[in-house]
Amino acid sequence: MLFQVAPHAVPVILAALAEDLPPFVRGHLLTTLWQLVTGESHLSESEAGEPELEEECCAAAREGIWLLYREAVSGDTETALDILEFVDPDTDRFEAFRSATAARAGKRLPRE
Fold it and tell me: What domain of life (predicted)?
């Protein structure tokens, strides 16, 4: 459940991800970012006129989209791709990147 502060946390997380961090810290930050972009506004926030905090979080994450693509190549690929799936409005770019990442890792993607 997202509260009013959630969209403001996204740029802080992105700024931290730009730094050299221990893998467990990076993983925790990515997981938190994933929770922010996939969450939903708490009922109290919806009642207070903030029904779309998750979209605000996605919009804030789009500001660091290239950082997330870099993370998908050199860090926690799966979590970064999970985040990008929600935040990248360019689905063709995302699918091409996802396919290239899977091919690079020697994985086969399921057919749709």
Answer: Bacteria
Q: List phi, psi (to 5°) of 89.
A: -75, -15
Output phi, psi for 8, to 5 deg: -80, -20
Cα–chain-centroid distance for residue 28?
A: 12
- Residue 105's pLDDT is what? 77
Residue 65 in contact with residue 18, Cβ under 8 Å? no
Look up the pTM and report it: 0.86
pLDDT per residue as tens digits for the range 74-96: 888 999 999 999 999 999 999 99
For the purposes of burial, counting CB atoms within 10 Å of the CB of 53, is it exposed (0-12), middle (13-18) or buried (19 or more)?
buried
Q: Are 11 and 57 in contact (CB under 8 A)?
A: no
CA dist list (Å): 97 to 68, 72, 90 = 12, 9, 11
What the block records as the tokens of 57 is: 């979080």
Which residue is it, tokens 């509260």? 3
